[in-house]
């Protein structure tokens, strides 16, 4: 039996991560057809979150593009960030990003996740998501509409086709 947090558990996790990386490598083909999203609020007012959740409902039918919510960060392909990145949330954002398997991508949704928005000068705020992790797609708006969010995801997938 492997105990959580033990050196054996850490070693097993390292081996698993290496296996996943070796199998998936930079093969973006897998993601192109079934991009699984992970949503993380780094300090949003909830406006962008509501629109992200709306974009994932059957009304907008994201599954026609294969887009679904991932059951865990370790199954995520695309990290959807909403909100200005606070200093505390920044640490968590980096940790979540590191836990995702390669290849992985990040989408910044809304003015706050892009640049910090109206909060960019606030003392607990670092600014946009790209201060902490590499961002592949920016979706402007305050908040952006669900159609714009889906459009941004599809544009990212089109970008991957060219790779
Ligand atoms: S961009 Fe607008 S709606 Fe989105 S988190 Fe910032 S203030 Fe809220």
Structural account:
The chain is α/β, with parallel strands linked by helices and about 160 residues long. It has a single domain, classed as Rossmann fold. Helix content is about 40%, strand content about 20%. The protein is built from six helices and seven strands. The strands form two sheets. It has a five-stranded parallel β-sheet with strand order 2-1-3-5-7, with helices on both faces. A two-stranded antiparallel sheet has the order 4-6. Helix 3 (about 45-55) links the parallel strand 1 (about 35-45) and strand 2. Helix 3 packs across helix 6. The chain is globular. The model has no long low-confidence stretch (mean pLDDT about 85). Iron/sulfur cluster (SF4) binds next to helix 3, strand 3 and helix 5.
Task: Summarize this structure as a short list of keywords or feature phrases.
163 residues, alpha/beta, Rossmann fold, five-stranded parallel beta sheet, two-stranded antiparallel sheet, 6 helices, binds iron/sulfur cluster
What is the fold's blueprint, element by element?
Layout: H1 7-24, H2 29-33, E1 36-43, H3 47-55, E2 68-69, E3 78-83, E4 85-86, H4 87-99, E5 105-109, H5 110-115, E6 125-127, E7 137-139, H6 146-161
Parallel strand pairs: 1-2, 1-3, 3-5, 5-7
Antiparallel strand pairs: 4-6
The chain binds iron/sulfur cluster (SF4).
